[in-house]
Amino acid sequence: NAGVMQNPRHLVRRRGQEARLRCSPMKGHSHVYWYRQLPEEGLKFMVYLQKENIIDESGMPKERFSAEFPKEGPSILRIQQVVRGDSAAYFCASSPPGLRAQYFGPGTRLTVL
Amino acid sequence: KQEVTQIPAALSVPEGENLVLNCSFTDSAIYNLQWFRQDPGKGLTSLLLIQSSQREQTSGRLNASLDKSSGRSTLYIAASQPGDSATYLCAVSGSRLTFGEGTQLTVNP
């Protein structure tokens, strides 16, 4: 059973470009979470999704950020018009139903030039 | 709003010592508590999960306790090894995880 997969592992974008981060949950997990770790800061919750539904997006910035978890395929975190302050490690986690342990992917490290 | 605090922020010990990492949280209405390990530049590895109805969990040299009423958890590491050097994160759950800032552990050979 493969773990949570994230790609790309490293992503470099120039200011104003779009960043797309992908997350494939563990097999059998229907819940996906995105977290952001800014340099020298702790992990902060961004969004919680189930298939085709956003359950809690209270941690997402109101502008430029969006997330989806379609019926087929990976979850996508999309950042439009990136700025230098978006440079961070973005982690995806998945869990089965029932508020169980969350398992984390290796993260995508976004660098905005 | 849930807040999670970890003490100490950093800890350096000689190999072989037993040590305790502390975690406190402000809202006792949690579903579970997880301890993670994070190596530099890497992702998170789940170490232990304690459900809110449980008092402790053990895995090898690791033992985690939970006192929900007082808002505290401890992670006990027995016979520490240099390979244990990492940042240890405590996180409490609702539907989302709220993380502490972590304890950076260095075990010296």
| Gap between N and C termini of chain A | 37 Å
The pair of chains with the biggest contact is: A-B, 22 and 23 residues
Main sheet characteristics of chain B: 6 strands, mixed
Instruction: List the secondary-structure elements of chain A in sequence, H or E.
Output: EEEEEEEEEEE
Shape annotation of chain A? globular
Quaternary structure state of the chains depicted: heterodimer
| Structural class by SSE content of chain B | mainly beta
Q: How many DSSP helices of chain A?
A: 0
Low-confidence parts of chain B, pLDDT < 50 over ≥5 residues?
Answer: none
> What is the number of beta strands of chain B?
11
Radius of gyration of chain B: 13 Å
Q: What percent of residues of chain A are in strands?
A: over 45%
What does this structure look like?
Chain A has 113 residues and is mostly beta strands. In chain A, the strands form 2 sheets. In chain A, strands 2, 4, 5, 6, 9, 10 and 11 form a 7-stranded mixed beta sheet that branches. In chain A, strands 1-3-8-7 form a 4-stranded antiparallel beta sheet, with no helix packed on it. Chain A has strands at residues 5-7, 10-13, 19-24, 31-37, 43-50, 53-56, 65-68, 75-79, 88-95, 103-104, 108-112. Chain A has no helices and 11 strands. Chain B has 109 residues and is mostly beta strands. Chain B is built from no helices and 11 strands. Chain B has strands at residues 4-7, 10-14, 19-25, 32-38, 44-51, 56-59, 62-67, 72-77, 86-93, 97-99, 103-108. In chain B, the strands form 2 sheets. In chain B, strands 2, 4, 5, 9, 10 and 11 form a 6-stranded mixed beta sheet that branches. In chain B, strands 1-3-8-7-6 form a 5-stranded antiparallel beta sheet, with no helix packed on it. In chain B, a hairpin with a 5-residue loop joins strand 4 (32-38) and strand 5 (44-51).
